[in-house]
Amino acid sequence: MWKHANVLPVPKQSILNSLNQLRPISLTDTIMRLFERSVFKTEIAHVTRHAIDSDQFAYKEGHNSIMALIKCQHTWLRWLEGDAKYVRVLSIDFRKAFDSVPHDILCEKLKKLPINPYVTNWLISFMEDRKQRVVVDGIETEYLNINRGVPQGTVLGPVLFSIMVNDIKTVNPINQLVKFADDMTLEVPGNENEDTSQAEVDSIQT
């Protein structure tokens, strides 16, 4: 049961017109979440504190959305006070990002981090063979096997997602990418001689 989750669809808006307006909230085992928290504090937190780049403002102690906005504003003003004639700002929101993470790619990224190999193997096992079902008004569906994505409703899910997107970088180091979970803001200074925004978008898409 430690790898099982009950998914509760919660409306994002007061008026529901489409199933896409439902936000899936996963409820997982309480004891397992306590164990996850212990593993994170003792084995993972000190690694991710240095391994997760400063461009990620979600799921990090001392970071929040306000700090992300301040960084954006500071950078724009610095560019405009310099050689930039304008700043292109592109907001990127990956659809179903948490549900679409390929386990094989994430596992390879985990192995590259300086985490105890036994903990790495446990994290890989933590993602495998998970099951979930939908529960609405006491009505339960059958459990379905989950072979992609980071487990939502868990303590480690956000950390695993941050590791997955950590290596998304700008092509040109002058440009800036600000991340808040799966929401990213690409910022590119431009003038009449140079605008690298399209190259950056092409890089992120691949």
Summarize this, please?
With 206 residues, the protein is an alpha+beta fold.
Tally of separate helices: 6
Oligomer: single chain
Global structural class: alpha+beta
Q: Helix fraction?
A: 25-40%
Radius of gyration, CA atoms, in whole angstroms: 19 Å
Strand content: 15-25%
Calculate the terminal CA-CA distance, rounded to whole Å: 37 Å
Uncertain residue ranges: none
Envelope shape: globular
Q: Main β-sheet, in a few words?
A: 5 strands, mixed
N-to-C order of helices and strands? EEHHEHHEEEHEEH
Report mean pLDDT, rounded to a whole number: 89
Number of strands: 8
What is the domain total for the residues? Answer: 1
InterPro entries: DNA/RNA_pol_sf (IPR043502), RT_dom (IPR000477)
Description of the molecule:
InterPro entries: DNA/RNA_pol_sf (IPR043502), RT_dom (IPR000477). The protein has six helices and eight strands, in the order E-E-H-H-E-H-H-E-E-E-H-E-E-H. The strands form two sheets. Strands 1, 2, 4, 5 and 6 form a five-stranded mixed β-sheet that branches. Strands 3-8-7 form a three-stranded antiparallel β-sheet, sandwiched between helices. Helix 3 packs antiparallel against helix 4 (117-127). With 206 residues, the chain is an alpha+beta fold. It is 37% helix and 23% strand. The two termini are 37 Å apart. Strand 7 and strand 8 (183-190) form a beta hairpin. 19% of the residues are buried. It is globular and about 60 Å long. The protein has helices spanning 30-51, 65-80, 103-111, 117-127, 157-165, 197-205; strands at residues 4-11, 22-27, 86-93, 130-136, 139-140, 144-146, 176-180, 183-190. The chain has one domain.
